[in-house]
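Async update (no meeting this week)

Hi team, since we skipped the sync, here's where things stand on the single-chain job. The sequence we agreed to prioritize is pasted below, unchanged from the tracker. I ran it this morning and attached the output directly underneath so nobody has to dig for it. Comments welcome in thread, and please keep replies under the output.
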Amino acid sequence: MTLVESWKRINSEELEVWQAEHSIEPFGDDWLQAGTVACASSFGKNRPSDFIPYSRKRQTPEEMQRIVADSMPKNRKLDK
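Output:
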């Protein structure tokens, strides 16, 4: 189903339910999902982690803010 087809089939109430569900429990780690598909196509010879470019740890909002702040010029402050 294409995106246009899905918009023709979903009503606003159902879309709101999906948006609320996603805000509570996101659909998952994109890299892990892609690795799982790639793993399945390798006929079980690999693990999903073999297809993930590097080991990643979820960043907290504070860590993300620090990284952005550290990347900005020293004379500019990040608004909180």
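Quick observations from my side:
The radius of gyration is 19 Å.
The longest helix spans residues 12-24.
Reply here if anything looks off.
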